[in-house]
Structure formats: structure tokens, C-alpha cells
Amino acid sequence: MKGFRTSLVAGSKPPYDSWTFLIVPPELATEWGHDRVPVRGTRSGTPFRGTAARGEGQLRIPIPQDLRERAGAAIGDSVDVAIERDKSPRPVRIPDELRTVFSNQPDVARVYDKLPPSLRRAWAEYV
To answer: CATH 2.40.30.100: which residues of the chain?
Structure first.
């Protein structure tokens, strides 16, 4: 796991201006070399899983509000982070209602299958 200290920052462009991110150091971003990298680690000792993605010219990881609250951190706070690529599976539980839609509308299922895992998970949870 790679450890570093960083600050939590707010996104600056809508719709991400209401989000909180931690910035992946440039040397680690260069080493990973991808636009989207599944990661796991700890932030101020609080475990998390997420996806590092390019935005506003940097590789960054969105930090959900509940994770910030559990760690007692806010935008602008410095935090200790230890992260690594997460190679473990990230299954998405698809509810029966969504399976029914996919059965009746295969074109919708194809579009859903092309979404990044985080968006598939968000839609499944929404349903």
C-alpha cells in the first residue's frame, strides 16, 4: 500500500462542486497510468473502497459524506491515506425489478452493462 498525506478538496465544476475528493499524488497517478482505477485503503484510519478517476486535470478519489463523517474530516483537512489498486471483485446486486426491465428491454440491459461499476451500482441501489 502506498501512504501519503493530502488535503480533502471540493470539486470546482458543477455537478462536482458539491463533492469532496482526495487527490492522488502525481507519481502514483503516473505509475497507475489509467483514467479509472479501483482502489482500497484507509483514510485517517477509516477503511474505504472507491475509484480513482481523472477530473479537473488530476487523478482523484471521491470521498462520500458518510466516510468523511466517520473519519471526522472536512474539506480542507489534512488526512493520512494509504491506498492500493483493488483487484477484488465488485459485484453489483441487481434487484428483481431491474432484471425484469432487462428481460423485456435487452437494449437497456446492453447500455447498463457498458456503464462503469459505480454507476451500475448506483442505478441498482436507486431501483
So the answer is: 2-85
For residue range 47-106, what is the model confidence (pLDDT) as tens digits?
Answer: 888 889 988 888 999 988 888 888 788 889 988 999 999 988 878 889 999 999 999 999
| CA distance linking residue 68 with residue 85, whole number of Å | 21
Neighbours of 31 (CB within 10 A): 11
The whole model's pTM is what? 0.71
| CATH number for the domain formed by residue range(s) 2-85 | 2.40.30.100
The answer to whether the peptide bond before residue 15 is cis (omega within 30 degrees of 0) is yes
Neighbour-count burial of 44, counting CB atoms closer than 10 A to its CB (0-12 exposed, 13-18 middle, 19+ buried): middle
Residues 6+ apart with CB under 8 A from 38: 49, 50, 51, 85, 86, 87, 90, 117
Q: Angle at Cα 123 formed by Cα 70 and Cα 32, nearest 5°?
A: 65
Contact 30, 49 (CB under 8 A): no
Query: What is d(CA 104, CA 101) in angstroms, rounded to the nearest whole number?
Result: 5
